[in-house]
Write a structure and sequence with these properties.
Layout (H helix, E strand, L loop, with lengths): L1 E4 L12 H19 L2 E4 L2 H10 L6 E3 L25 E6 L8 H14 L3 E6 L5 H10 L5 E5 L6 H7 L2 E4 L13 H8 L4 E4 L5 H4 L6 E4 L4 H11 L4 H15 L2 H17 L2
Parallel strand pairs: 1-2, 2-3, 4-5, 4-7, 5-6, 7-8, 8-9
Helix pairs in contact: 3-4, 3-8, 6-9
Length: about 270
């Protein structure tokens, strides 16, 4: 049996009811399968560390880093010009708008930044059940330089990334939900964008290096996110973006991902 996982966090449940008891039993069975399977394929470093923490043998674990399409490779250009929205630096959020994606944290952090700088703009692309709450929050905080653009056609996503200067994925741990990976980070990196994300995002452990192509901050921490957004504007965004592209080309490799599966299969065959 070969198992492929991208999960990387042990869940916790407070209180007792039939639903939580069922989930605890299910989770224990899942952990047992991870430990006992003949080979385990993990989607990244976070998943690898999780498997090891459960007691999985290192020789039975094989990495297959999550990959996305090369958005920039499908386009003819990538603009490095920051002067695209009334001379404002554009921070982009592009994802579903659900509570554990942390958009409310980003809006609060941006409100602090906007009070200090007039040359910043928050572009929010996506939709979901948490959008109405976030929209009301932005109004309550009297944020001016913000736009909720709604959903975007997948064929036009490259043009959205092209408008941005920094990509932010502020996911957090809520109700045992978290970002198992976050392929939008791969996509944004393919478009030469600096990244700000949190330690609740699986991709952060493989694709984001502090000060090199962006920052990883503590999840659910408004002040930490605000400081990272402030700090990144003091750096060379073009250089950070180019570093993102270099990391993307190095690690976003479908052949290497497939090789992880191949190694797991060959290992299992060799043991029989």
């Amino acid at each position: 049996m070969i198992l492929w996982i991208i999960e990387w966090r042990k869940l916790s449940y407070k209180g007792f009811n039939l639903k939580k008891i069922y989930r605890k039993i299910r989770d224990k069975i899942g952990e047992y399968i991870i430990i006992e399977c003949d080979a385990l394929i993990v989607g990244g470093t976070a998943a690898y560390n999780y498997a090891v923490s459960l007691g999985k043998k290192d020789k039975e674990i094989f990495k297959a880093l999550q990959c996305s399409n090369d958005i920039w490779g499908e386009k003819t250009s990538r603009s490095y010009t920051i002067k695209q929205n009334n001379h404002k630096y554009i921070f982009l959020y592009l994802s579903r708008i659900i509570s554990w994606k942390g958009l409310d944290i980003l809006i609060k952090a941006f409100s602090f930044l906007e009070k200090e700088r007039k040359d910043v703009f928050l572009l929010i692309v996506g939709d979901g059940p948490f959008r109405n709450y976030c929209s009301k929050l932005s109004t309550l905080l009297k944020i001016k330089n913000i736009k909720f653009e709604g959903s975007v056609n997948p064929n036009s996503v490259g043009k959205v990334y092209q408008r941005a200067d920094v990509f932010v994925l502020p996911s957090c741990f809520r109700d045992n939900f978290y970002e198992a990976w976050g392929l939008v980070i791969n996509e944004a990196m393919s478009m030469h964008l600096p990244i700000i994300t949190t330690n609740a995002v699986g991709a952060a452990y493989d694709l984001v290096i502090n000060g090199y192509n962006g920052f990883v901050v503590q999840q659910n921490d408004v002040i930490a996110l605000y400081k990272a957004m402030k700090k990144i504007l003091e750096l060379d965004l073009s250089e950070l973006g180019n570093n993102s592209r270099k990391l993307f080309e190095e690690k976003n490799n479908f052949k290497e991902m497939a090789n992880g599966f191949s190694q797991a299969i060959n290992y299992v065959i060799s043991q029989k």
